[in-house]
Amino acid sequence: MVRSIFAIIIAVVAGVFAARFVEIVGGAVFSSGAANGAITGGHQALLVAGWAFGGFLAAALALLVGRRWAPLGWLGAATILLLAVISIAGQAVAWPVWIGAFIAPGLGGWGAVRILRADYAHPARRGDSAG
Predict the structure, then answer these.
(1) Rounded to whole angstroms, how far apart are CA atoms 92 and 21?
(2) How far separated are the first and last CA of the chain, in Å rounded?
(3) What tens digit of pLDDT does each residue of 18-65 get?
(4) Torsion sign across C-alpha atoms 96, 102, 105, 107
């Protein structure tokens, strides 16, 4: 259980850092200077890509530290979903970005679960003796 908590903490910190880094870089590259706070289409696309990358990274790290237990990966991706909703709640973005905010972290998490061949059985029930 301590290993699972440690896995989620590491995954959330790294995933949030990665997603926020992409958001900040996108803001610097695609700044529109509009007085109403609207962001450009390229920046909006980069936001969605950053959330997908953050979801993938968070899920992958949670799976690697947590002995490939799939629920840890999904929890890591879900935290990036929460970050995405918080990030765009106060901005003027188009409705496709809202849809992307709900889909992109899940796709990133799904990709990590599939690529790392995570198992839904708890490691203690699988017979893993490590950790």
Answers:
(1) 20
(2) 10
(3) 999 998 888 788 776 665 666 778 888 888 999 999 999 999 999 999
(4) negative
pTM, full prediction: 0.85
- Kindly report the CA angle at 114 between 116 and 47, in degrees rounded to 5? 100
Structure confidence at residue 10 (pLDDT) = 93
**Side chain identity at 36, as an amino acid letter?**
N
The structure tokens listed for 59 are: 């899920």
Counting Cβ atoms within 10 Å, is residue 31 exposed (0-12), middle (13-18) or buried (19+)? Answer: exposed
State how far the alpha carbon of 34 is from the alpha carbons of 7, 39, 97, 127, in Å: 41, 8, 18, 58
> Quick one: angle between helices 70-88 and 95-115, nearest 10?
160
Q: Is the pLDDT of residue 91 over 90?
A: no
Question: Can you read off the two tokens belonging to residue 103?
Answer: 């889909």
Ordered by start, the domain boundaries in the chain are 2-124
Backbone φ, ψ for residue 92 (5° rounding): -90, 95
Length of the chain counted residue by residue: 131
